[in-house]
Amino acid sequence: MNRKDITTLYRDCERLGIEFDDILAFRRDSMTLHTWFERECGDSNNYASWAIERDPETDLPYLVTYPHNGKERRQRIPDREKGARKRIADRCERFGLYHYIQTDPRGWSLYLSREPINGTNYTNGIGVGK
């Protein structure tokens, strides 16, 4: 985000009645989710590919590395997604807001609005941090 985008975000959030410290917290959680969703999509180099995957039985997150020649490695990692989602939901409840979390890392991860938002009208909300 450039300076103009951040200034616009603060102004728009203040119109919704969100206090400055909470705007910063929403933005921090949105950036956490954005990074998480990028890592879920994965990445690779000449030697291996890797991504965050959840164990289907326990729902615990792992960073899984797939070497191009060799056995996969699974490393348990902290679940930053669940914490960020909970903090966002709690803050929205406090301010009487609705939120939508977009899991595609090519755009905003979090949208806020006074009106209910869903997957088809989320861009009517305020995009918070990337």
Q: What does this protein structure show overall?
A:
- The protein is of the alpha+beta class.
- The protein has a domain at 3-40 and 78-128.
- It is 39% helix and 24% strand.
- It has three helices and seven strands.
- The protein has a four-stranded antiparallel sheet. The protein has a three-stranded antiparallel sheet with strand order 5-6-7, with helices on one face.
- A hairpin with a 5-residue loop joins β3 and β4.
User: Could you say which overall geometry the principal axes of the C-alpha atoms support?
Assistant: elongated
Q: What percent of the residues sit in helical stretches (DSSP H or I)?
A: 25-40%
Strand order of the largest sheet: 1-2-3-4
Spatial separation of the terminal alpha carbons: 7 Å
Rg is 17 Å
Content-based structural category: alpha+beta
Unreliable parts:
none
Order of helices and strands: HHEEEEHEEE
Biggest sheet character = 4 strands, antiparallel
Strand runs, count? 7
Overall pLDDT score: 91
Counting DSSP H or I runs of 4 or more residues, the number of helices is 3
How much of the polypeptide forms β-strand, as a percent range?
A: 15-25%
Defining traits:
130 residues, alpha+beta, four-stranded antiparallel sheet, three-stranded antiparallel sheet, 3 helices, 7 strands, elongated
Describe the SSE topology.
Elements: H1 3-15, H2 20-41, E1 43-44, E2 48-54, E3 61-67, E4 73-76, H3 80-95, E5 98-101, E6 110-113, E7 126-128
Antiparallel strand pairs: 1-2, 2-3, 3-4, 5-6, 6-7
